[in-house]
Structure formats: C-alpha cells, structure tokens
Specification:
The protein is 66% helix and 0% strand. The protein is built from eight helices and no strands. Helix 1 (2-19) crosses helix 5 (95-101), helix 3 runs antiparallel to helix 8 (161-178) and helix 5 runs antiparallel to helix 6.
C-alpha cells in the first residue's frame, strides 16, 4: 500500500511540476539567472505550506515525529551540495525534475540527467568507505544543524518551536504569493 501511495503522490507531484512549467530546463536556468521567479515562488510556497502542515499536524498530534530526522552538516555535505549546484546550473535540471521533464519532450536531456544522478549516487556509494577514511565527514562537523538550532549561545532567539514554524510558513507563503513572476526591466 505504501508503494502505491508513493506512486500516486509521485505522479501528482510530477504532473504539478509539468503543468507549472517547473520541469522546464529553460525556466530553471531563468530562475537561476534571476530573470523569472516563477519556480522560486513555487519552491518558497511549497516550503511554507510544508512548514504549516508540519506545525499543525504536530500540534494536533497526528504526526509521528519519529519519522523525521536531521542529518549532520559537515564538509562532505557542503562539497556535495556545491557539485550538485554546479551541475544543476549547467543543465537547468536536477535528477528529480528530469523525470518530470520527460513529459516536456526533452527526452534525451532528461534521460541523461537522470542517468547522471544515478551514476553520481553509485560512484558516491562506491567511494564512501574511502571518503570516511579521509575524515571528510568529520571535518567541519556542525552536527544536526537546523534553522531553529543555530546557536547554543542564544537558544531563545533560535528555538522558536512549532508555533514559530507555523508563522514562518505563513510568511513564506505570503512572500511567494505577492512576489512578482518576472524581473522588472
């Protein structure tokens, strides 16, 4: 049943990416060049909506927080993010949106991006043991870093709780709603 739910929600998500033009490599590159804010607005609204739902579901007790975890922030994550970001900017897509991009008719590019993502994951998996030995995962280890736990020095400022998460989510959605779609000339 979980697999079926995953397939259905994935299909809806892919359709939403396609229908909103968020799977378009051209639109992605325009977003990265700050020429068109449509995808940025979609992402910001989705983050806000997710924050609101997470806060509300937790407040009413229908969310099992044991399913959520924060991974550690270290040099390996930073380097991996930079490599991913450069690739994302070069091709205007990431492995996830490339599957939705197949619906836009960009078959070759979408397939190559997806294959690149799979190869990248495979290479990382094969190199993982050697990378651990280099200490890259211990270098610059900031622990489980979140927006709400940036500093132990000022916990009242950074730990806003679920009510703060709810407010932050509403603010993000409002910004996304009122933000212009295109950069003004």
């Amino acid at each position: 049943m979980d697999l079926f739910i995953g397939l259905v929600t994935g299909a809806f998500f892919g359709a939403a990416l396609y229908l909103s033009d968020a799977a378009s490599p051209v639109k992605m590159r325009q977003m990265l060049r700050l020429e068109d804010y449509t995808i940025f607005k979609i992402i910001l609204f989705a983050i806000g909506l997710s924050a609101v739902l997470l806060a509300v579901f937790n407040m009413v007790g229908i969310l099992n927080l044991s399913h959520l975890s924060v991974k550690t922030m270290h040099l390996g994550v930073i380097v991996g993010g930079l490599i991913f970001g450069v690739g994302f900017g070069m091709v205007g897509s990431c492995p996830g949106t490339s599957f939705a991009a197949i619906g836009t008719g960009v078959y070759k590019q979408a397939l190559m991006i997806a294959i690149g993502g799979i190869i990248g994951a495979l290479v990382f998996s094969l190199m993982y043991g050697g990378l651990v030995d280099t200490g890259i995962f211990k270098a610059m280890n900031f622990g489980k870093l979140t927006l709400f736990k940036i500093s132990d020095k000022y916990p009242s400022v950074t730990e806003i709780g679920y009510s703060g998460l709810l407010v932050m989510g509403v603010v993000f959605m409002a910004i996304a709603w009122f933000m212009p779609e295109k950069k003004k000339a």
